[in-house]
Amino acid sequence: MSQALAPPTTAGPTPGTPTKSATAAPRRRFTAWRRWLSPVAIVALWQLASSTGVLDERKLASPAQIATAAGELIADGTLGDAVLVSVQRVALGFVLGASFGLLLALVAGLSKIGEEAVDPPMQMLRTLPHFGLIPLFIIWMGIDEAPKVALIALGVAFPLYLNTFAGIRGIDRKVMEAARSMHLTRLQRIRHVVLPGALPNTLVGLRQSLGIAWLSLIVAETIGSDAGLGYMINRARDFLLTDVIVVGLVTYSLLGLATDAIVRYLERRALSWRA
Fold first, then answer.
1. Quick check: is 46 in a domain?
2. What DSSP string describes the chain?
3. Does the residue 230 lie in any domain?
4. The pLDDT value given to residue 19
């Protein structure tokens, strides 16, 4: 009778039985590898089409030719020099455009008068296709570095302005009232409430701005360039070197992914308080 009324015992995992955490790790690794299956399959089909003559290598080089061209460009320093010039242009244009966009966002977001003075012209200018301004930039600044940097800066400024402005105006009014009840000065409210509250939107704008910066660079480097990735691609186009063209385009893409990864890392560190 006592055996019948005894509570059931819960047996622990038997030796040799895999736990959930032990089985989850291989599953995550398999999922990560699975994301690479389709890109690898595309490259393999591309190589197969080139090797069998289905795809004319004069119109698009095979992956093997592209890899060989990339190795040669790296070995003779051509690719490294081009990347250095292009990165310098993006860095300078980004610093100028980001400074301009953030400053105007603060002026418009923190003051009603500032909003009325800054926001209407910014909303008008952002609707202009900034690539269409290239002829004016050439007339105003020539074909040296200035129009290239200005084009990048213009592309960077608007996403940062729009997202930061939205972040400032999206702060909960109750939070501001709580800051006033704690007798914080205006500068203290800006530092401890406004800027941290707008930071998530600002980081989103930063990622968008960096993407547009690299897109702007591709166009900017067609303006009378004598160095950089765009110059390398234009020279390859003149000699129908599709392998070099693809190497340049892939390098643009990798640089864009690298800068986006940096911003995502900063986002995880700066916004670690969020769920």
1. no
2. -HHHHSPPP---PPTTPPPHHHHHHHHHHHHHHHTTHHHHHHHHHHHHHHHTTSS-TTTS--HHHHHHHHHHHHHTTHHHHHHHHHHHHHHHHHHHHHHHHHHHHHHHHH-HHHHHHHHHHHHHHHTS-GGGGHHHHHHHHTTSHHHHHHHHHHHHHHHHHHHHHHHHHTS-HHHHHHHHHTT--HHHHIIIIIHHHHHHHHHHHHHHHHHHHHHHHHHHTTSS-SSSHHHHHHHHHHTT-HHHHHHHHHHHHHHHHHHHHHHHHHHHHHTTT--
3. yes
4. 55
Round to whole Å and give the CA distance between 251 and 70: 10
* Tokens coding 127: 């609707």
Q: Which of 94, 100, 125, 116 is nearest to 209 (CA)?
A: 94
The reported pTM is 0.76
Each residue of 58-99: pLDDT tens digit? 788 888 888 888 899 999 888 999 999 999 999 999 999 999
Range of the domain at 153: 68-270
Q: For residue 266, give the CATH number of its domain.
A: 1.10.3720.10
Contact 108, 119 (CB under 8 A): yes
Residue 20: CA atoms inside 13 Å, Cβ hemisphere, count?
A: 0
